[in-house]
Every structure is written in structure tokens, then in C-alpha cells.
Write a structure and sequence with these properties.
Shape: elongated
GO biological process, one term: proteolysis involved in protein catabolic process
Distance between the termini: 85 Å
Structural class: alpha+beta
Pfam families: DUF7092, Peptidase_M48
Largest sheet: 7 strands, antiparallel
Cofactor: Zn(2+)
Number of helices: 12
Radius of gyration: 32 Å
Strand content: 15-25%
InterPro entries: DUF7092, Mito/Outer_Membr_Metalloprot, Peptidase_M48
Number of domains: 2
Keywords: Hydrolase, Membrane, Metal-binding, Metalloprotease, Protease, Transmembrane, Transmembrane helix, Zinc
Number of strands: 11
Length: 334
């Protein structure tokens, strides 16, 4: 059995017509200026795909292009059989359409978070603190203003903070509390990966300087740092973005849109578990300080009442579990 093909010499755009045949496990290429015998094992054969020509790369660097419908059955039986079968099997295509998204979800929802959790302890504290400085620079420019607390009030809170650090047996050099005013964030507190904890003036005002409630919030934020939640989410976001960009190739715009949306929804759902871990840490420390664990629930209720109620879509996108479940957890820990 023989077929016709076009032969391109190495590094040449000119071709000549040749005849191909297979004998004794060798491909015979015959033409006016070409006469080669090549072992089938030394060929690089692209599997036949739909209506596209099939290509065969020769060891000498030459290229054979077989027109549509001119495939050699001896070659295709050795190469590309599975791919060819998948192409022609509608059930296999449908199954792939279902399995590929599920596999992606499994990687993003399970694999990446697990890997991120294992890798984040290896990040040096100096790198985390560098991230803190960069984030605070941006936040101070866009979202935060200098605190309006008087010097005595700030000093009182700093003293309480230092006393708490001593009792918690934490590395004081790895932690700092900053006070800021933030009309856009309102009554809030947040922790950065390197141990920077920011408490807003609005939160202290809302909690009426209740030390137990404020410390409950601070312990919660320390829990995020101790469990390295910040670095974990950064690692997850980076890995997910790289994965989507790699899979989608050079489709830069679609990659950014898809990975950004997917990451936000999935990671915010994951961070519900992280919030529970931080709540558990806060409750444990409140018990160690002989502070009623209900202080955490009181703080959560006050913050929730101060913020606007979320609609159903926002609740799905929210990074926090329901306030009711968290308050109940704090109260039951008494």
C-alpha cells in the first residue's frame, strides 16, 4: 500500500511530490530527488486530526505532509490511535466536557489549598514583613487615614497589647498593632501575613473601648497570623492564576477574567474555614486570659449590626461564616 505526500527538506519551504510505502517496518520515501528508507521507530508522527493534513518528521530534519485521506494505515495503527478514537467518539467527547471542569475544580478546591498550606511555613518572616510594608503603603494611600485617637488612649492600648504578647509567649518582633481611621472600612480589624494587625478608630468607638471585646477581636486576628492564613491565600491565588494562564495559553484577557472570578469565589468559600480556625484560636486565648468567651460573640454582633446587611449573593461571596454560627460557637465555649 502506498500514498502520495509532499516532502519538505530541512529548513526549506520548497517541496516535491513523493510516494510513501511501508515495507519490513520501514517507511520508503521515493521521489525524483529523494530516496530514503527510515525505520518506523525513528519517525515522529502527528496523529490524524479531523480534516487537517498529517505530518511526519524524519530524522534528517525533513517533513512529510500527507493530504487529507492519504494516511497510511500501518502508521496510524502505531501512532495516535487513542487520540483518533477520542476525536471520533461522541460519548468520549461528552465525558471529557464533564470531567475536565470537575478535575479543574478538584485541583483548585482541594489540591492547591493543600499544597499552599504545606508550603507557606517555608516562607521567611522577612518576606512576610516585606509584604506587610507594601500592603500598608497602598492602604495608607487609598483606604486608611492617621488615627485620631489621643496619645493617652493609644498608649493604653499599646501597653495592653504588649502585656498580652508576653502572656501569649509570641515573638514580639513579629507583631505590631497599628491604629488607623477608615471611613470606607468602618468598624473593622485585619491582619497581614507578617504580623501587622490594624485596628480602626471606628471599631474602638463601636465597642466603646470595651477591653474584653477588643482583645477578642485582636486574638482573632492573631489567629489568622499564627495559622498563616494570609500567606496561604496569597499562595492559592498565585497558583490558581498561573494554572489558568497556563491552560488557556496566550488568551491573556480571558485568563485574567476567568482566574480572577474563580479565585475570588472559591477562596472566599475556603476562607470560611479559616475564619473558624481564627475564632477557635481567639476562644482558646480568651479562656487562657480568664476573659468570657462571649466577648467574641459580643464583638461580632456589634460589628455585624454596624455593617449593612448582606443580600443572598453577597452572603455567598462573603469570606466569613454566618455571624449567628460564630456567636453561637463563642457562647457555647463558655
Amino acid at each position: 500500500m502506498s500514498t502520495f505526500a509532499k516532502f519538505f527538506a530541512a529548513q526549506s519551504s520548497q517541496y516535491q511530490d513523493v510516494t510513501l510505502s511501508v515495507e519490513s517496518q520501514q517507511l520508503i520515501v521515493s521521489g525524483e530527488h529523494v530516496n530514503q528508507r527510515v525505520s518506523l521507530d525513528n519517525l515522529v508522527i502527528t496523529p490524524p486530526m479531523a480534516n487537517l493534513p498529517q505530518e511526519i518528521k524524519l530524522p534528517c530534519g525533513g517533513l512529510l505532509v500527507l493530504p487529507k485521506g492519504s494516511e497510511l494505515s500501518q502508521l496510524n495503527s502505531r501512532h495516535g490511535g487513542v487520540i483518533d478514537w477520542l476525536e471520533k467518539n461522541k460519548f468520549a467527547c461528552l465525558l471529557a466536557l464533564l470531567l475536565v471542569p470537575l478535575c479543574f475544580y478538584g485541583i483548585v478546591a482541594k489540591g492547591i489549598p493543600k499544597l499552599a498550606k504545606e508550603m507557606t511555613p517555608m516562607v521567611p518572616i522577612s518576606v512576610k514583613q516585606s509584604i506587610d510594608r507594601q500592603v500598608m503603603y497602598v492602604f495608607d494611600e487609598l483606604m486608611l487615614k492617621p488615627s485620631e485617637l489621643d496619645e493617652n488612649t493609644q498608649q493604653r492600648w499599646q501597653q495592653l497589647w504588649q502585656k498580652s504578647l508576653d502572656q501569649l509567649d509570641l515573638q514580639q518582633n513579629n507583631y505590631q498593632v497599628l491604629f488607623r481611621q477608615s471611613p470606607s472600612m468602618g468598624a473593622n480589624a485585619f491582619a497581614l501575613p507578617g504580623g501587622t494587625i490594624v485596628v480602626t478608630d471606628e471599631l474602638l468607638k463601636l465597642l466603646k473601648n470595651n477591653e474584653d471585646a477588643v482583645m477578642a477581636v485582636v486574638f482573632h486576628e492573631i489567629g489568622h497570623v499564627e495559622h498563616q492564613h494570609g500567606m496561604q491565600l496569597i499562595a492559592e491565588s498565585l497558583a490558581t492564576t498561573l494554572l489558568m494562564t497556563y491552560v488557556l495559553g496566550d488568551m491573556e484577557g480571558i485568563a485574567e477574567l476567568y482566574s480572577g472570578s474563580f479565585t475570588s469565589i472559591v477562596q472566599n468559600q475556603f476562607s470560611q474555614q479559616l475564619e473558624k480556625e481564627a475564632d477557635s484560636y481567639a476562644v482558646k486565648q480568651l479562656q487562657a486570659f480568664d476573659i468570657p468567651t462571649s466577648a467574641l460573640g459580643d464583638a461580632l454582633l456589634a460589628i455585624s449590626a454596624d455593617h449593612e446587611k448582606l443580600d443572598k449573593l453577597q452572603q455567598y461571596l462573603s469570606s466569613h461564616p454566618s455571624i449567628e454560627s460564630r456567636v453561637k460557637f463563642a457562647q457555647q465555649a463558655q
